Amino acid sequence: MVAYHVIGGMQLSSNSGWYYSSDLLVDLRMPLFTALSGFVFAWRSPSDIGSYRRLIIGKARRLLVPLLTVGTLFVLVQSVTPGTNSTRPIQEFWKLYVYGLGHFWFLQAIFLIFLVVGLVNLSALGRKFSFALATLTITSGIAILVNVPAAWDIFSINRAIELLPFFLLGYISSSYGSMLLPARGAVLVLAGALLAVRAAEVFGVINLPASSSALLSLLLGLTGITAVVAFRKQLCWLPLAWLGHFSFAIFLLHVFGTAPVRILLNTIGFDSEILVFVACMAAGLGLPILFEVTLGRFPWISWALLGQKPYRSPIAKPQITGQIESVPAR
User: Where in the numbering of this chain does the Acyltransferase domain appear (predicted)?
Assistant: First the structure.
């Protein structure tokens, strides 16, 4: 996601290889974040009204508080800083809270998903594999067919509809993951084939109708994420696991690192695409981590801006267990 925003901010030509590489992953980027949230949700899903209430209060603190604080700061900084990629007037700041602006739409969408799935999970039926699978199938169809008009797309409901199947996939993978193992090789092959079709479209070899492209996006996301979850032990890498501890801070704050560095390099005439990309990536990852390990130690700052408990060090050395350690909306 950080790389996606860096590439978008570089304002390259539409036929740039950077855009091609970014577009190839568009079907996996946010769906994977959402699936990881569903994966972890299954570990402590609510079973009664009391636990559901605690879930919603916790998610409001975790997601909506940063939406109000970091989101507002983002809109204000973007509106007064020259060289940003948005010309949105400050008078439209309210759209952040109603429709979602920038990458903060995800906080709204995932909160709606927690509301709905948590409520359904209160019933015994909601925790059955057959029901979860049927719900995944139905919501996948809805994600393709339903599009709420822009004026009524309040609290990023369209995005919530699009991402709900992936959240359910994560939930199913966590709860019934052993059922995936026998077929994981076939799933990997299918995901590779679908990715090849997407690559053909991205590079202009084929031109799919909008409906076919939407179906391809859904199927590639579902199969690709299933393959990632099924092969997670083989994919586990200690540096990435360490980085995952700071995933939410990176999600929230990366733009405050990438944009200033890009603007500075453009101002001084530094035009090497590779070095601009590397510098912006380093800032987008490094600044949020630095923020969490320093200012994030203060309770009121951590709760107000990150929606979480204060940072404590040293963190335990990650172990290769195959389990997901951290997700953007844990």
Answer: 1-291
Tokens at residue 295, please?
């200012």
| pTM given for the model | 0.89
**Spatial separation of the C-alpha atoms in residues 308 and 299, rounded to whole Å:** 9
Which residue bears the tokens 């859904």?
A: 218
- Residue 12's identity, in one-letter code, is L
Q: How far, CA to CA in Å, does 194 sit from each of 56, 199, 214, 219?
A: 36, 9, 12, 8
Which phi-psi region, left, alpha or beta, contains residue 159 (left: φ > 0; alpha: ψ -120 to 50)?
alpha
